[in-house]
Amino acid sequence: MRTMADLPQDLKPMLASTAEPFDSPDFLFEPKWDGFRCLAYLEKGTTQLKSRSGSDLSGSFPELASLHKCAAGIPAVLDGEIIAFHEGRESFYHLQQRVRHGHPGTPLGKHAQLAPIIFIAFDILYSGGKSVLAAPLEDRKELLRRTVADENQHLLINSYILEAGEALYAAAVAQGREGIVAKKRDSPYLPGKRSKLWLKIKPKKTVDAVVVGYVPKTDDSFVSLVLAQYSPKGELLHVGSVGTGFTEQETREILAELKPLSGKKPAVQRLRQPAADVIWVKPEMVVEVRIFEYTPRGTLRHPVYCRRREDLNPEQCVIKSWLEKGDG
Length: 328
Description:
Low-confidence stretches: 1-5, 103-107, 321-327
Largest sheet: 7 strands, mixed
CATH class of the largest domain: Alpha Beta
Number of helices: 5
Order of helices and strands: EEEEEEHHEEHEEHEEEEEHEEEEE
Number of domains: 3
CATH topology of the largest domain: D-amino Acid Aminotransferase, Chain A, domain 1
Number of strands: 20
CATH superfamily of the largest domain: DNA ligase/mRNA capping enzyme
Helix content: 10-25%
Shape: globular
Mean pLDDT: 88
Distance between the termini: 32 Å
């Protein structure tokens, strides 16, 4: 039998482009969850959780350490989303707290008690140690159903419907959900690739950006964050600032993490705003902002802060048309 060491350790999740709501008999449609994308490596006696960037998340989520006990056909690799539920819906904030403040081997803290952790599985890449990447999506869905024979409070299979994408999208918007994902029914699994075989349909246009500075207001608050994104050539370019969408707690927490990163010079090129009041920081923090569009000058129009993206590296924040944008 193949062991974990035999499974490819450099697998990356397949990614989705963005689209408007649509119906099609060629696609299935499933809920999009507000959590951490994750590949679960399951072997006899072992579960390892890898983030989209390849980081090991296993220590932050000890509740998921026994996923392998719920699966047949191991060694196996499942694709899914780690989510935290709080007051009846997923909470990205509570999920972040687990990663930021959790320590491997320590007892579960207050965030675990407030927000139970669940792994939502929606695809399978390896089964019985063998690749099923080339199999059509619907075949993989059926194999996933047979593999995860024991759904429980920490492991669920994502539901989906056929053809009626517009109705599912409307329901997601009405419930204030993250959106939906449309997937071609016969699509293979393309690790690390973004294509139109999978389409992310979200109510708002969002982009990920790197924080390169901030304009202070008081000792524990700021007026705005200065944002940048990488060009396809690897240049870190200024794309504007965001000053709305933060709670007071988020403002304090973000500022506390930015202060130790302070520097004397901006890390960005093509600076598009006066720099007199800006305190520059090392480009390490990634945030997601909701925007209307990019302006012709390449800046973000009407940006509103959404959340931190600790599951992404700064280099993954690349300038592109929002229609081509997607985080999987």
